[in-house]
Structures are given as C-alpha cells and as structure tokens.
Design goal:
The complex is a heterodimer. Chain A is of the alpha/beta class. Chain A has 13 helices and twelve strands. Chain B is 34% helix and 22% strand. In chain B, the strands form two sheets. Chain B has an eight-stranded mixed sheet, with helices on both faces. The radius of gyration of chain B is 21 Å and the shape is globular. Classes of the chains: A alpha/beta, B alpha/beta. Chain A: It holds the Pfam family oligo_HPY.
Amino acid sequence: MSAALLEVSELEVAFDTRRGRVKAVDGLSFRLGKGEIIALVGESGCGKSVAVKSVLKLLPEQTARYEAGSITLDGRDLLGLDEKAMEAVRGREIALIFQDPMSSLNPVLTIGKQIGEAIKRHQGGSRQEIAHRTVDLLRRVGIPAPETRLNAYPHEFSGGMRQRVMIAMALSCGPRVILADEITTALDVTIQAQIIDLLKSLVADAGAAVVMITHDMGVVAGAAERVYVMYAGAVVETATTEDLFSRPAMPYTWGLLRSIPSLDRPVHEPLVPIEGLPPNVALLDGGCRFRPRCPYRRDICAEAEPPLAPAPDGAEGHLARCWGLDPVRGWLRDTDWKTDLGDPAARAQISADAAKIKGGKP
Amino acid sequence: MTDAILDIRNLTVRFGSIAAVNDVSLTLRRGETLGLVGESGSGKSTASRAILQINRASSGEVHFDGEELVGAKGARLKALRRRMQMVFQDPRSSLDPRMTVGALLEEPQVIFGIGTRVSRKARVAEMLHLVGLDPAVANRFPHEFSGGQAQRIAIARALILEPELIIADEPVSALDVSIQAQIINLLVKLRSQLNLSLLFIAHDLAVVRHISDRVAVMYLGRVVELADRDLLYGAPAHPYTRALLSAVPVPDPHIERQRQREILKGELPSPANLPSGCAFRSRCPLYAALGKPEICSEKLPPLAKVVPGQSAACHFAGETDKVAGPSA
C-alpha cells in the first residue's frame, strides 16, 4: 500500500439531539492513496454523508461532536486545525461535490462568475486570467463552446451540465482529494456514464484522488479500487473492489449484492431483499448493528459488537465485522451466500417485525 | 381485441407548442406487465398521466377494456378510474400527512360508496396484511413510516378497490436498494395473486427487466423500441436502446472493466427544437458510423417490425452492430 494521502481512523462523530447523544459515525476508518478512487457504499442513514462532511469539518458546531479518532491529510492532523486553517484546506486541498448541483449553485450568478469566484478566492489573479482559467476548466469537464457559456445561469444548464460545472469548480484549485457525494444519483443513466468517465479521466490526468460516496454498487464496480461498506454509522466490510464482489464476507454485503436487480443476472432469478428496515442509529443497543435484519444471527450477536477483523479469504486488507466469521466461534466461513439465505424462521421474524412500528419516528 | 386491457392509439399530449408525448401507440394485454423506460423528459410520466386523464390528450385514443377514455367525464370517468389505479414515486408526498393510514385506505371505498364502516375497516386490515404490514398500524400517520413502509401503504391504497390495471410511476426509485427488492417482490406477488395488469414506468433498466414481460423505450416523446423483454435486453434493435443498456453499470468489476461502453455524446436536445427527421440523430452513434445518411434527417422513422415481437423506430434497425467497432 502506498502512503496515505487522506487517512481517517477510528472516527466517531456524535450529534446532540433532544433524545440525547446519537452516534452518526461510529468507528470509521479509511485510507486514500494518491491517484486512487475509493468508495464508501451504504444506504440512506448509514452515515456516509456525515462522514464526508466531518472530513471537511462542515458539521454544525453546536450539535456535532468529534468523540474519537483522527483525520490526517498527508500526515497533517485536520481535527486539530482551527477554522482559519481549515478554510485553506477546503477547496484548495480537499474539494467536495454534492449530489444536487442545482441547490449547490447560486441561481442568480452566472456560471462564469461562480467558478471565477472560487479561483479568485483561492488563487487570485487578474480578471482576464480568471476568465481564461474558467474557460479552460469548463473545457476540461467537457462543456461544449465554453466561451459562450460563461454568461449563462445555472437554470439554463441541464442536470448533467450543472454537475460538470460543479466538477469544474471542484477542480478550480487543483485539489489533491475530491469527495464526491452521490454525484451521479440524480442523473440519467447515459449522463451518469459520461460523468463517471470524466471523473476517472480526471484522476488519471490530474492525479487527484477521489472518495466516492454512493449507494450504487454498479457505479462502485466500475470506478472504485477499494470499497468500504457502511451500515448504521460503521464500516462493516472493506476490501478491494475485486475481492468484495467475488468474495463478500459478511451478511449485509451479501444482502446488498443479492438484492440488486442487475442486467447480468439470470432474468428469472428472484431478488432477495434484505428483510426489515434500516436501523435508527439512536436506538442501537450495543450488539452487532446488522443483527436486527440478519437471518444468520446467533445469540452472541446480541452480546457485543463484532470487531472489524480479517475476512476468511485472507486477502490483504479484506476486513469484515461479523461474529459468524470469527476464527474460533464463527459459523459462516463456508456459507455459500448465493444459495444459503439464512434461517427461514429468522427471516420470517424480521419481516414480521418490520410490519409494525416501534415507538417514535422511524 | 378483447385481451387488451389498455389500447393506446396515436396518443399525443401537447403543452403549448411542445409535444411531450408524440404519436404513441401501445397495447397492454390483460395480466401483462409492460415496462416503460426512458430518461427524464422522455414523456413516460406524461403518457401515464394521460391514460388516467390527469393530463388530457391533445389527440389520439386510449381504450380501457374497450371503452374510450379520452374525453370521458363525470360519472363515467369515475367509474372507469376505479378499475385503474396509480402508484407514485414518492409515497410520502402522495399520502395526506394529516390522515391516519386507516382513513387513507378507507377513503377510496367511501368515495365509491362501498361497504359499511365495519366492512371497510375489515378490508383495510386485510389490505395492510396483504402488503406486509401489521393491521394495527391503521391508526398511525404516514410520517411514522419509513419510505418502504409508506410505499406499501400507497400500494395497499391503490389496490383496495380491486382495480384491474395498476400504473406504477417510478415506484421504487426513491427507495434504498435493500428495500427496493422488497417492493418489487411485493408487486410481483400481488400481480399474480390479484391477476393485475401492470404498466411499470421506470428509468432503471435493470429493475424494468426484472418485472416486465414487454418493454417500451421512449425518447423525446416517442416510443423508439417496443419488444419482448428478452429480445429487448438480448438484442436491442434501436441504437438508443443499445446505448441505454450499455450505460447501465453492472455490479461486477470483471464485467465493468471489460465492457466497451457506447457512451452517448451530448445531451437531450430541447423538445422545443427537435432535430429534423429522427430526433435521436443528434446523439446517435449509428448515424455517425454510417456517415450521416440523408434519410435520417429527412424522414421520421416509423415504429416498424424488426423480428416478431420486436419493433423499432430506426431506418437502420438491422444494422446496429456497425457501431460496435470500425474494425469489425
């Protein structure tokens, strides 16, 4: 493994809420090397967006608490930096691209002005230089006839074009790390393919490294080199993309892969959903966080949270959080996840639980 | 034809000068699931709304079980609508937040004057059970449910009048993948259990493949390909269908790395200013590969049979292989 450019280790972020302190990120670790693309995958509420915002320290100061862990950029501790120093990191060293470009662009400023603003703020230069650089950036992200689009407003651009503008803005200061938060989710599939290709070519050309945050396993398979699967605030499995898809180790990852309708699946093969509902992180009770939806669970799963431990395939950097894989007590090491769907009684119990509502909001 | 529950002929829906749906003809057989796919702005939602007469057709006909829907009004439309129901993308915004689930499910029965209070409540409990919810949730409010649960409620509400046709407009696209599969499986189960015909509208081609018998692909208001599922996915005839399929990411790194993508250049043209002839021409890889044949800019390609069970609106529908690579 190369030296880490961005390294997050054992990060814990909690929010003060009316119902007490809620841990949104609980033991997140990942490392991003130079020129690498990694993916954080998970469903809504799993803490992936909070994780990204916490890297840039963009969480609301009043309620967010960094409880443990560290975030380092090229060996420099970001959590120790004050707001002023963080401002120099944001945009210039680490750039963030959001899912919805329409709500991240200012509707009353022209595209040229908005990109120029980012350049001016971080790098300065004469008006002419800035305009020149803006055109250059728009061209790099594939906007046709960029000279003529400088004076256009965001609403005059399509969703895909706006996302390109966001990428241009992110690139404007030559960041070393790009955090891409669900950037293709709102786009049509043909445009999505264009944007992913663009991102990949930028990594290859500009040497930027990318953390992709997504729920789309297809996008992950095509673009990322390493995957971190998140569930309810924690990384539950990580591996190279290759290993994760060919030898997923723990039941949540199995469930994710089994539930995706995909063009390469036999058409009559039924989808196997993960029964039950995503957990409320405020109501976690200390055992394995996937246990309430896990059809392979046993008593031990309720007793303690399993550690992120080496997966049974022994591949380097393949870790999973599951008691069933424990070298001594485990019972899942040889399970064929494609055919063994777990205990039918447990499955039935999980869907019966999901048919009800527990107290309070879901 | 008696086995067609829905027969759409030359349907056009205009908003001002723009034809959002342009000369669309589709038939849905009884008990069949027809998938309708297309990117945003392709007119798939407008078409579905025009079937239910939410958007009024500018021209064309929509026959439901032999009865003309276009122009139907008042009691006749109401009676017909009872037999066809819609499930929308966002269950939270399609369920009134101030009504309990029980009241939401009772309302359609009240509107149609069905049953007594007691029998209606019993029916509500039965429906909730059918969609996998505890009947005790009837006195809860929509906000207390997760997205997947709320979509189950929306489905129960659509099914409570025992309709014959369900139009589902992106019913799973707002849901998490693990929940998506639950709802798809639920729809598949209910479809056969209740002998429903289903018009399933989605942008996700993998989801559509999973649930449909036949699939129609729309581009800028027109159907560009209509085919049996296996033909459409196995041997797409229209270059747009090919490009769409090739753009769908597959969750398998080996396949992804080896795939030759046909990435469409550019964006959807403005519907107010469509290219002449074939509207897909401006992005069509085949048009470029064939050296921009004149016929594409001069003549609108009709939806014509390619092989039995498959039609495409392309002058060169048989020659899509030419894009695969100049070396071939």
